[in-house]
Design a protein that fits this description.
By secondary structure, this protein is of the alpha/beta class. It has 13 helices and nine strands. The protein has two domains: about 200 residues, Spore Coat Polysaccharide Biosynthesis Protein SpsA, Chain A; about 100 residues, no CATH class. Strands 1, 2, 3, 4, 5, 6, 7, 8 and 9 form a nine-stranded mixed sheet that branches. Helix 12 crosses helix 13. The protein is globular.
């Protein structure tokens, strides 16, 4: 008897996309699954669609709740899940037919607590099926280090939804309710509990990119939640013995303050406040993390000081370096 795997799907405002997502899940070659649709108070026809899928297939379970956000919906699914393993799929995305089968076999074969695949940014085209069984295994500090790799590689590791987890990892962990960047605030804690993670090179998950209403498409002061998540991560690193990662962790925080500031145009609500707050936080991080920031290249440290003194001067100097 194969293990039961719970697939948690938060549902909100995706009437146009839910069918494609569900078709990919109901077509999984690994059949011992339960699909938990968490209708997060969706204002469109999604609640009725969820109930229709439940009537169509006994493996579908539906939970209707008042809107609690993505984290709240995932947490509800975790509380209701019966499976030995957990997967998350966002309701406007879709997966390959052997998504669950491949991740399950990879997890068992490698004796890992988490398995993950690559994903592709898609706009509706089918995912190509492949047969490669190659994978890499990461453990301990090496696993945590992947959160600070090149941007695309780091994204594979931080997101919640391209992975299969042993359920026991979530016994004491939940996603922070009411915040965006919930994966940035949670994945590192799961990595700390996991003995190891296996990463297949296959692209098995399609991340849909035409939904312009996505929280990732518009800058707002809610982006400060990203900074909070990384502040919490640094505190966790200090407590859990990952001090070797602190220089790069502080660098990521400081760099984000500058990047966010330039993305915060005058059209953003409370733009003046947000820019001032980002500048203040950069000073705070540089001061509090002095012992670790001192290990960064001199050029990087000088750049932070120039930005604190004059963001305009910093931008001019940066432009000159890029053009030169």
């Amino acid at each position: 008897m194969t293990a039961l795997i719970s697939i948690i799907v938060p549902v909100y405002g995706v009437e146009a996309y839910l069918g494609r997502c569900m078709e990919s899940l109901l077509s999984q070659t690994y059949e011992n699954i339960e699909i938990i649709l968490v209708d997060d108070g969706s204002p469109d026809n999604c609640p009725a669609l969820c109930d229709a899928y439940k009537a169509q297939d006994a493996r579908v379970r539906v939970i209707h709740q008042e809107n609690a956000g993505l984290s709240g919906a995932r947490n509800t699914g975790l509380c209701e899940a019966r499976g030995e393993y957990i997967a998350f799929v966002d309701s406007d995305d879709y997966v390959a037919a052997d998504y669950i089968k491949t991740l399950y076999e990879l997890l068992v074969e490698s004796e890992s607590d988490i398995s993950q695949c690559r994903f592709a940014y898609v706009s509706g085209e089918p995912l190509e099926s492949g047969k490669s069984r190659s994978y890499k295994v990461y453990r301990g500090e090496s696993l945590m280090e992947q959160l600070y790799g090149p941007e695309q590689e780091a994204t594979y590791f931080v997101v919640a939804w391209n992975k299969l987890y042993k359920r026991e990892l979530f016994l004491e962990i939940r996603y922070p309710k009411g915040r965006i960047h919930e994966d940035e605030a949670t994945t590192y804690r799961l990595f700390d509990k996991a003995k190891k993670l296996a990463f297949t090179e296959r692209v098995l998950y399609g991340y849909f990119t035409e939904n312009t209403g996505s929280i990732t498409s518009v800058f707002s002061k809610k982006r400060l939640d990203w900074l909070l998540a990384h502040e919490e991560r640094i505190a966790f690193f200090l407590e859990a013995g990952y001090e070797r990662l602190l220089p790069v962790a502080y660098k990521k925080l400081c760099d984000a303050c500058i990047t966010f500031s330039y993305r915060c145009t005058e059209q953003v609500e409370d733009a003046t406040y947000v820019k001032a707050e980002l500048r203040r936080r950069l000073t705070f991080y540089r001061t509090k993390g002095r012992a670790w920031i001192s290990q960064l290249p001199l050029r990087t440290r000088i750049g932070y000081r120039i930005y604190e003194i004059s963001p305009i001067l910093y931008q001019r100097l940066l432009k000159g370096l890029q053009e030169g």
